[in-house]
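Researcher: Quick test of sequence recovery. Tokens follow.
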């Protein structure tokens, strides 16, 4: 029941999952829309401020012209004085725009006043209203200097009101007040039009950004979709050779696809190696197990009563058990050799010292062989390899040279520098092998002559271990051979720079 509940929960989560494509689409749409909104808001506020400043300047111009005309009177303003002054046709707001125009009832009023945007009020010295172009519900408060105030609640919303005292140019006495009110009717109309256009454009921009975001998301997610499909195929069939078509791109998704393909290739190789390894191990263990089983059955039937048969069976069984023990140990060594880059990446080893040590050991163990050392190193050279691993590699190659030598018991060991690498060569004058065998000799459990190799105690894992170790330290190993004339195994390992070598030698 718990397992079924977990499955149902997974299904619900999958149903509620939002596709990455839609997340990117929504994200791109929001980002583009916010960018448009911020940009439009800045422009709109700037435009609004410019319009308000223009309206304020228009009010200021009307006030200056009226105070200049009314200031020509000597005494307190009267209604007749105001109408007479405003009735003069030479008054201009600007050189191109007259302040007065004739209406149908032959009464002159300011041009902007006739459009309903500007209202002019003239008050006497005693704050009595003498003249008003239009009636608006905005109060009057006398001021000593010109001030333009913003009225929050005007006929159409926000409005402007300018009040200034009028002084006679002749005696400098206060003769009245002028109030100019700008109802901002044209401003509000233009404001609504611009705001509507911005909102409409914003909706269009939102839809457009959504479409663009969807297209971009599909384009970006195409490699991920192919990656997902490839993973599903490999999940169903781990041995599938399905890979992602990288194409000509050079971005992070292409890098991800390349890494995924490389991972699949390595996994495929590991699967093939594992299958081959299991088959080879089962095949190699089958013979000693069969031998031991045969001797045990022989002893169980009648051989245990015969001392000769008993001794022969026990010796053969112990020999096969020893082979199995050696095989298991070599399998462990091979498994550890695959992890050298993780555990021994900072190791430093002197090449000449290890070669001399191993060379002298083999001279003592095999006195019937003639060993020759050709050392072309001018000084000690260090390589990035664990000391025991380099010694193990040399032992494997020298042991093979001894095993497969025939009439000529001679082994040649040489070491030299080749550019940034150190090259070690081990040559024997034994059986040799074909060109095909020089390639396969490093495969697990491969033996050129299985019968003779078994007789000489080989399991076919030594060269595989050596190759795995050398490649783990970024080196190379290869064989050169002529059948019936002997073989040469060459090793190349990257040497350390002189500064690193000097530091290691000082330690």
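Model:
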């Amino acid at each position: 029941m718990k397992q079924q509940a977990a499955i149902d929960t997974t299904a619900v989560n999958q149903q509620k999952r939002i596709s990455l494509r839609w997340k990117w689409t929504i994200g791109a749409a929001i980002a583009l829309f916010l960018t448009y909104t911020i940009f439009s808001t800045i422009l709109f506020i700037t435009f609004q401020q410019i319009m308000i400043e223009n309206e304020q300047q228009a009010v200021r111009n009307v006030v200056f012209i009226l105070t200049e005309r009314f200031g020509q009177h000597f005494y307190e303003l009267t209604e007749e004085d105001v109408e007479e002054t405003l009735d003069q046709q030479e008054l201009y707001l600007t050189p191109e725009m007259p302040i007065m125009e004739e209406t149908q009832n032959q009464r002159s009023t300011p041009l902007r006043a006739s459009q309903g945007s500007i209202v002019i009020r003239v008050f006497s010295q005693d704050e009595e209203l003498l003249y008003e172009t239009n009636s608006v519900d905005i109060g009057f408060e006398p001021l000593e200097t010109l001030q333009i105030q913003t009225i929050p609640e005007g006929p159409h919303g926000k409005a402007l009101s300018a009040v200034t005292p009028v002084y006679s140019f002749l005696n400098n006495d206060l003769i009245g007040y002028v109030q100019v009110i700008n109802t901002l009717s044209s401003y509000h109309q233009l404001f609504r039009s611009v705001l509507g256009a911005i909102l409409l454009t914003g909706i269009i921009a939102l839809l457009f950004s959504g479409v663009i975001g969807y297209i971009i998301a599909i384009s970006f997610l195409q490699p991920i979709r192919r990656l997902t499909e490839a993973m599903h195929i490999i999940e169903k069939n781990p041995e599938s050779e399905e890979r992602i078509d990288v194409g000509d791109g050079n971005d992070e998704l292409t890098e991800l696809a390349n890494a995924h393909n490389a991972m699949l290739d390595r996994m495929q190789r590991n699967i093939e190696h594992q299958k081959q390894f299991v088959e080879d191990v089962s095949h190699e263990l089958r013979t000693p197990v069969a031998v031991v089983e045969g001797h045990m059955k022989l002893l169980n039937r009648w051989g245990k009563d015969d001392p000769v048969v008993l001794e022969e069976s026990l010796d053969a069984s112990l020999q096969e058990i020893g082979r199995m023990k050696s095989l298991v140990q070599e399998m462990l060594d091979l498994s550890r050799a695959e992890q050298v880059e993780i555990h021994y990446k900072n190791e430093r080893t002197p090449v000449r010292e290890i070669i001399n040590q191993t060379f002298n050991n083999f001279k003592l163990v095999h006195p019937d062989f003639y060993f020759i050392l050709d050392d072309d190193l001018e000084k000690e050279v260090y390589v990035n390899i664990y000391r025991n691993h380099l010694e193990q590699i040399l032992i494997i190659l020298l042991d093979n040279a001894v095993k497969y030598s025939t009439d000529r018991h001679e082994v040649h060991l040489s070491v030299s520098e080749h550019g940034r690498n150190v090259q070690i060569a081990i040559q024997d004058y034994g059986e040799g092998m074909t060109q095909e065998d020089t390639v396969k000799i490093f495969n697990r459990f491969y033996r050129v002559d299985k019968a003779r190799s078994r007789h000489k105690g080989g399991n076919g894992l030594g060269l595989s271990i050596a190759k795995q170790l050398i490649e783990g330290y970024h080196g190379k190993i290869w064989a050169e051979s002529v059948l019936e004339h002997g073989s040469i195994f060459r090793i190349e390992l990257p040497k350390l720079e002189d500064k690193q070598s000097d530091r290691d030698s000082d330690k």
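Residues 1-13, 89-115 have pLDDT under 50 and may be disordered.
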